[in-house]
Please model this.
Amino acid sequence: MIEIRLIPQKEFKRIRAANIDKYTKLKILANMCRANAIATVKRAGSGHLGSSFSSLDIVTALYFAEMNIAEVGISHPDRDIYFSSKGHDVPGHYAVLYAMGLVSEEKFLNLRRHGGTHGHPDVSIAGIEANSGSLGMGISKAKGMAWAKQAKGAGGRVMVMTGDGELQEGQIWESLQTAAHQKVNNLIVIVDFNKFQSDKALKHIIDLGDLESKFRVFGWHVERCDGHDFAALEDVFARLKGITDKPKVLIADTVKGKGISFMESPTEWPDEKFLYKWHAGAPDDDSFEAGYGELTESINNRLQSVGLDALTTEIIETREKNRIKLKDTAEKVVNAYGEALVELGTQRKDMVVLDADLSADCGLRLFENAFPQRFIESGIAEQDMVSAAGGLALQGLLPVVNSFGVFLASRANEQIYNNATEKTKIIYVCHYAGLIPAGPGKSHQSVRDISLFGALPNVVVIEPGNAVETKEALRWCVEEASQSCMMRLAISPSPRTIPLPDDYHFTYAQGTVIIDGQDAALFAYGPVMLNEAMVAAATLQAHNCSLKVINLPWLNRIDEDWFKKSIADCDTVFVLDNHSRYGGLGDMVLNTAQKIDTARRKRFIKFGLDEYPACGTPPEVLAYHKLDGDSIAASILKTIQGS
Amino acid sequence: MIEIRLIPQKEFKRIRAANIDKYTKLKILANMCRANAIATVKRAGSGHLGSSFSSLDIVTALYFAEMNIAEVGISHPDRDIYFSSKGHDVPGHYAVLYAMGLVSEEKFLNLRRHGGTHGHPDVSIAGIEANSGSLGMGISKAKGMAWAKQAKGAGGRVMVMTGDGELQEGQIWESLQTAAHQKVNNLIVIVDFNKFQSDKALKHIIDLGDLESKFRVFGWHVERCDGHDFAALEDVFARLKGITDKPKVLIADTVKGKGISFMESPTEWPDEKFLYKWHAGAPDDDSFEAGYGELTESINNRLQSVGLDALTTEIIETREKNRIKLKDTAEKVVNAYGEALVELGTQRKDMVVLDADLSADCGLRLFENAFPQRFIESGIAEQDMVSAAGGLALQGLLPVVNSFGVFLASRANEQIYNNATEKTKIIYVCHYAGLIPAGPGKSHQSVRDISLFGALPNVVVIEPGNAVETKEALRWCVEEASQSCMMRLAISPSPRTIPLPDDYHFTYAQGTVIIDGQDAALFAYGPVMLNEAMVAAATLQAHNCSLKVINLPWLNRIDEDWFKKSIADCDTVFVLDNHSRYGGLGDMVLNTAQKIDTARRKRFIKFGLDEYPACGTPPEVLAYHKLDGDSIAASILKTIQGS
Model:
C-alpha cells in the first residue's frame, strides 16, 4: 500500500507565525507546497509537476512575502493580482492558495475531479484571476487588467508568470509591443526560465537566443535573478517598485522539477536526444514515495535547524501499490497513427511532418527519429507552423501538421483558411479531440474543432474509431484524398477496441454498422463515444429495445444512398457527437436528411455538448454531460416510448 | 468625360530593350507600372494605391533586374520566388506582372472584377506565388517554400515583402524565430517601411521602436536602404548573396504614395491627428487626372532626357465625370453603429472601445475622438486585443472589440474562446461581414464568422438589417445582454434602407415580417441579403407566388413560439445566409424546427455559400453564387412548383 498525505492548513499557519529567519521560512513553506502539490497530482493521476516546482519558490515569495492579498483580501480593487499564463503549473499554485486559506481542503484534494479544482486555472476557483492553459495569452490579459487598474485609479500591481517555451507564441510579442506603447507600466511579467519544454531543451526546440535583449528592444525594463533565491527575489521586487516608466519583466532562472533531486532538470544544456521526464503526468508509486520522502525530510531538517517541531501530516488516501492501469494495456489510436506515419513516410518521400512541441503526445516520435530530415519542429507557434506548411504544399510537398485540436483548429484558424484557399493539399491532425480525457479542463478538451473546419468547403474531416481505422484513414488522406483533410484523434487509451465487421472496408463517406438493430439508429464516431454507444445498446437490449449503432468516421461527407439505406428501418435517428452539439456530425446528418424525401420525415435527435466541457474523470464528466451510455440509453428509451 | 488609359505591353518591351542607363530605365518602368496601377484602381473603383506605390520601385527592381524569372520562367523549380505578405499592394504587383507579359491585358484591366484579377493576391493568377491579404502570414509561408527548396535541392531565393504595420502581428515574430533556428537562410524579407498604417502614422498606432535591433536580436542579418534608390537596392541584393549563415531582411525606407506628389506621405513623423488619405480607395476624378498626368509627364521627361520617344497609351474606358455614387447617399449601418457607440458611451463610463488599426472603416472615429481615454488602439494584433479585452472585462469594464470579421473571428478565435470560458461580458463586432463588397476578395469577405462563434454556448450572435436595428442591437448588447455578444455588421452602403413595420420592436430571439406572404417563407438578415430577399419577393409576386420575407437578426437564438407562428402558414421554408451554408442561420432554423412537431415536417431549404467567396462587383458575385434576388426567386419557384 502507498499512503498519500496532506500537510494541513494549520501547519502552514504555524510556520507562518513562527519567529524565524524570513528566507528559511519561505524555503520551508515552498517545500510544504511542493509536498502538497505532488500529493494532489498523485491522487489525480495526472498534472504538471516539473513547472509547478520550477515556479513554486517565486509563487511562494509572491503570496507569503510580496503581495498585499493577505492584508486586503482577494476581492479588493487595490489588490495585487497574480496569475499564471502557462497555467499547467497550477497544482503548485493551488497548494499556495490552499496554504493561504483561500481554497478549501476538499476542493484542493480533488484536483482534476468534477467539483474539485480544474487541471488548468479557472476563475471559478477562489484566488484564480484568469483562465489559462493555452499558451501565450497571459501578458495580453494582464495588460488589460493593469490598464483597467490605471483607468479606475486602483492600486496594486498585476503580475503574470509565463513559461519560457511559451515565449515562442507570437501573441507574446504582440503584447510586449502594445504594453510598452500603451505605457501599461503597472505590469510585471515573470518568466519561469527553466529551459525545458514538453520534454526537450528549449535550445533544441526553438532557441530563444538573447532573451534579455529581446525584452529590452521591445521597450521593457529587464531584471534577471535566480528564481530559487528568496533574497534575490525580494531585492528584484523592491527594485521594480522604483521603475515606473516601462512595463517590467523578471527573467527568473529556475530548475524544472526543483526540490526533488531526481526530477530536477540539468543545469547545462543537454544534447538533442535528452528527454526530460517530469513535465506532465503523475509519478509512479516508487517515485512518489521517494520524492515525497525527500521533500518532507528537507522540510523537517530545516524545521529542526530553527528549533521548530517536525511536520504533522494527514493521510488522505491509501491505495494498493503498483496497480495495473488501463493506459498500460489498452489500444491507443494515436499509437496506430504514429506507426502509420512511418509506414507511409517510408514510401512517400514528399511527406513532411510538422510538430508544435507535442511530439510524444501526438505519436510523432517514431517518425521524428526515422526521418529527422522530414520532421519540422516548430515550437509552440502554431500559426507559423500552419503557414509554413502552406509554403511546403505550394512547393509540392505533403505536410502533415500536428497539434492538439484546441490549439490547431482555433489558434491557427485563419492560417488554415488561407492555406485552404490556395487549394493545395495539407493534412491537419487535431489530437486530443473531444471531451476525454477531461482532467486538463476546457483549455485542452477540443469540442469545437469540427465547427472550426466546417465552413472550409474543400477540407474533409474524419475521426477514426479504432487502430485499424486510424491507419486506413491516414492512408486515405495521404494516398487518395485530392484536397486537404483534417483528422481528429482521441489521445486517451481506448475504453475498448471498437469492433469492425469481417468485411470491413474504409469507404469514402460511408460508415459501418457495428451493432445491428431496428428500433432506432445511433450514429457515433471515435473510440470514446462508440464505446458509450455500445454500452447504450447493451442497456437498451435489456429493455427489449434494439439499437442500431453505426460508426461514421466521415464527419462532413455523407454518401446519400448509403445513408438512406442505413436508416431505412428506423423512424428515429440519434447522433452522438464527441463535440459541441453545434456544427458536428449531428448537423451534417440533419442536413443530409433534408435532401432525401424518405429521410427528412424521420425524427432526428442530437447528443452533444451544450456548454463548456467539464473537468473531472472520464466517468464523472460523461455522466455530468449525460453522454455516458446509461444516460444515452435512458434518453433514447424515453424518446422512443414517448413517440 | 474622363479617360482611363493603359500603357500597353509593347511599350514596356520597347523601354526594356532600350540601351539606356539601367537606373533611369528602372525609374521609367516603375512609373509606367504606377500609371497602369492607378488606371486599374480607378476603373475598379477601389484598391490600395499608397502601398502599391511605396513598394513599386522595389518590385520593379526585383522583376526587371534581380530575379531569374525572365530567364527560367515562372514554373521552374529553380526560379526566384517573390510574393507580398501584405497583399494589398497587389495593383502594383499586377502592373509589373502585366508588363512582364505574365498577366494578360484582359485580366489586368479587370481588377476586382469576376474573372479578372482579385483584390488581394490569388495563386490562380499567373505569377502570384501565394494567397495573402490577411496580414502576418507571409514570412512563415515563404519560410516553408524556402525550406522545401532546400529539401529538394532547388535553386533560387524566396523573397517576401511585408508592410511595416504588419510587423505588429505576432505571427511575424514566430516566423522570425523559427526561420533563424531552422537555418532557412535562402529567405529574404523586405520590409516596405513607409511608416503609415491605414491612415495614421505607425508611430502613433503601435510604435515598432528600433526595428533593426529587433530583427538582429531574433537572429537575422539586417540591411537597410532607401527603397526608392535603385543603385542602393542593387547593392543590397548583391551583398545579400554573400550572406549564407542567416535569414536576411532588408528594411527599405519608402514613402507611401511615392510617385504622385499629393499622395506622398510626410517624411517626418506627423502629429497624432494627421490622417493619410491614400491607403485605400480609388481617387476621385480630379485626383486621378492630376495624378495620372504627373506620372506620364515624369515618364516622358525621362524618356526625352535619354532620347526616346514619348509614351503611347491606349484609352480603355471613358466615363462621365463626377458621377454620383451610391456610397455618397445610401444608408450605412456602420455609421449608425458609430453614432450608437458614442450615445451609449456617454452614459456608460465602463465602456471601452478597442480597435486594430481599422478605426475609420469600423465607424469608431467618433468614439475615438469623443472618449480618447476609453479608446484602445491595439495595432494590427488582434489576438493581443482580444485577450486584453478579457483582462478589462475581468476588472469589471465593458470592452467593445472591433475588427473585420475574418480577422477577429478567425485570427483571435482561441482568445475569444478563452475569454468566453471566464463568463465575463465582452461585445465583439465583426465588421465587413458577409459576401459584399466582393472586390477585396476572400481574405476580407467574412463568410465563416457565425460558424467560428457557433460552438461558444454563451455568446449571442446578431446581424442587424438597417440603421435603426443596428442602434437597437448595440443598445441590447450593452444594456440588456447578460453575457457576451457578437454583432456582425455589413460595411458597404446598404442597397436600400430595409423597411421595418410601424410597431417595430427589437425583441430577443424574434424577427420581423417585412413582406407578408403565404406560399413560402424566407428568413434573411442584414441589409445585403434582405434586399435580395425583397427583390426575390417582388419577382415571385409577378409569378403569382406570395413570399413571406422575415428579417431575423438573431442568428443563434430563436424563440420557438414565435418561430412556430411565423411559419405556420407555409409548407416550405427558405433561409438565406450571408455566410457559408454551414453553420449559419440556416442550420439554426433546421435545429429549431426539429424541436417542434408541427415544424419539423415542413421542407427546409438553405441558400448560402458552398465554396470560397468569389471576387468581383456585388452584382457579379451575387449572381455567380446564385444569391441574387432573381436566382433566389427562380430557385424558390422551382421548389414550390415541383413539390
The longest strand of chain B covers residues 572-580. Chain B touches chain A through 108 residues (CB under 8 Å).
